[in-house]
Amino acid sequence: MRKFVRPLAFSAALGTAGLAATHLLGETPPPPAKAAADQPAELKYAVDPRPLGDTAQKGLKWLAAQQNADGGFPQGGGWRTGGQGGGRVENAEDPSDVGNTCIALLALYRAGNTPTDGEYKEHVRKGLRFLCEKVEKADAKDLYVTDVRNTQLQSKIGPYVDTFLATLVLSELKGKGGDDEKRLAAALDKTIDKIAKNQKEDGTFAGNGGWAPVLSQMVCNKGLARAKQNGAAVDDRVFA
Fold first, then answer.
1. CA-based angle 11:16:17, to the nearest 5?
2. Closest C-alpha among 211, 106, 91 to residue 154
3. Of the candidates 130, 228, 137, 136, which has an alpha carbon nearest to the alpha carbon of residue 174?
4. What angle do CA 111, 70, 116 make, to 5 degrees?
5. 97 phi and psi, to 5 degrees?
6. With b meaning 16 or more CB within 10 Å and e meaning fewer, what string describes 57-79?
7. 11, pLDDT greater than 50
8. Which of 101, 111, 160, 159 is nearest to 132 (CA)?
9. Phi/psi at 129 (5° precision)
């Protein structure tokens, strides 16, 4: 299989573009105090989105070609952190992982693809099923949703970034899952519950280290906001 080129640049570019693109969906409004869990808010564009240019189309085609047979995406080679010693392991094994799969799914989804519609609907559908399977297998108590550890993404912005990204992706795809909608909703409920169980009084999470963990905290906050907008049950105390 072809490898990702410059995985850090790839993750940073897609992550930044993906998170910034949430502004195209409108700013997150303050949640109503007693919003019904089955009453999703209407999401409006802040501006009229422009058609994707040739460069973006080529990027999407290349990205789709990197998907593994299991439906997930790897980080694309490169190093991993070496556990407690903090050293780097070069040319490590590179299986599909939740975090990079979520970033790829965000890019495909925000380009107009869902599990049931769009040129890359099959890629989104396979990616969603990979994501749901990982969440389903995860322990219900701790904050992990993956057994793939020490990825570059985790070492950069925190070990729980996979869980926070999964919450964001599942929230944005909620209502668009097609045959997998029930499974999607259950996975989203589980990640929200894991966040609630592990959140400290100050809103942060124990052990969420890394070079810039505030970024994963931001992803968590955005994921909860999107979940609440799309009608998922989010405890007001956790959201606050």
1. 105
2. 211
3. 228
4. 40
5. -130, 160
6. eebbeebbebbbeebbbbbbbbb
7. no
8. 101
9. -65, -40
Query: How many helical (H) and strand (E) elements, i.e. helices and strands, does the chain have?
Result: 9, 2
Single-letter amino acid, residue 59:
G
Q: Residue 81: what are its φ and ψ, rounded to 5°?
A: -75, 150
Rounded-to-integer distance, Cα 148 and Cα 162, Å: 10
Residue 13: count of CB within 10 angstroms of its CB? 14
Read out DSSP for 114-159? -SSSSTTHHHHHHHHHHHHHHHHHS-SSSS---S--S-HHHHHH-T
The answer to whether 70 and 133 are in contact (CB under 8 A) is no
Number of neighbouring beta carbons within 10 Å of residue 226 = 25
Q: pTM for this one?
A: 0.81
Q: What is the mean pLDDT of residues 96-124?
A: 97
Q: What is the DSSP pairing of strand 88-89 with strand 80-81?
A: antiparallel
What's the burial of 133, exposed, middle or buried (CB within 10 Å: 0-12/13-18/19+)? Answer: middle
At residue 106, does pLDDT exceed 70? yes
- For the range 122-126, what are the long-range contacts, defined as Cβ-Cβ under 8 Å and sequence gap of 24 or more? 123/64, 123/67, 124/173, 125/178, 125/180, 126/67, 126/71
pLDDT for 36 equals: 47
The pLDDT value given to residue 21? 46
- Distance (Å) of CA 164 to CA 31, 90, 213, 215: 19, 26, 12, 10
